[in-house]
């Protein structure tokens, strides 16, 4: 698949070492790719293989690009883990179907896609999110739906710029949600977890109510983050067996 190879070669030249910036353990693998590189590569005339063609059929051009970018990152991340999987990963209930024994998560924003993977024998939950810096006006508008006043005051002490703090908290909560959703199967809004502290390169979030009988109110989860210019990548990885 020439377009895929081309996109991957673009990535080698572009991608910073996000894993290192996030301080990921060695058994959690992460890959990122520039969306413009994938868009350019997908303009190549070569048709993709039948499985991918089927997956892409009904998608808009934007959706097709982000989907492909996420799947390229997933394949690369799995390879780093030593797992060769079907490409692209199939979809069930809007979620990628990861190979047996593997946990994974995909995210994309306008300029970048990322995927993170780890073995189920070591981790019970994994969620990644990438978010472009939210415009200051939008940040002001959405702040009440992203956090309560008490959280905001705590966070503002650590991250004084509102656009950055709202983007960061939004992204951290999405990463947490994406980590737990495969275990809970339940929608939770942004007030289902709250900011309760900062550590170097990480926000600590606390569940505000029972998400399930296993994921109780008060459970604290650390979400690591790294800024890449005007984007933030957030990663939640929870050790243990489900
Ligand atoms: C599911 C959700 C988090 C996805 O976030 P998004 O910013 O729209 O999109 P992202 O690019 O980060 O992630 C999309 C990818 O996540 C995966 N995904 C989709 N739904 C998911 C879910 N419920 N759980 C985990 N992963 C999911 C898919 O791989 C998808 O990419 P793909 O369709 O190309 O395969 C978001 O749509 C949502 O529902 N948010 C509200 C819930 C929430 O975050 N609550 C906070 C609780 S504290």
TrEMBL record:
Its needed co-factors are: Mg(2+)
Say yes or no: keyword Transmembrane present: no
What positions does the entry give for Mg(2+) binding?
Answer: 129, 131
Q: Which GO terms describe its cellular component?
A: enterobactin synthetase complex; plasma membrane
One Pfam family assigned to this protein is 4PPT_N
Catalysed reaction equations from the record: apo-[aryl-carrier protein] + CoA = holo-[aryl-carrier protein] + adenosine 3',5'-bisphosphate + H(+); apo-[peptidyl-carrier protein] + CoA = holo-[peptidyl-carrier protein] + adenosine 3',5'-bisphosphate + H(+)
| Recorded family membership | Belongs to the P-Pant transferase superfamily. EntD family.
Q: Name one GO molecular function term.
A: holo-[acyl-carrier-protein] synthase activity
Q: What is this protein called?
A: Enterobactin synthase component D
Domain spans labelled 4'-phosphopantetheinyl transferase N-terminal: 57-118
Which GO BP terms, alphabetically? enterobactin biosynthetic process
Domain 4'-phosphopantetheinyl transferase, residue spans:
126-218
Summarize subunit and interaction data from the UniProt record for this chain: EntB, EntD, EntE, and EntF form a multienzyme complex called enterobactin synthase.
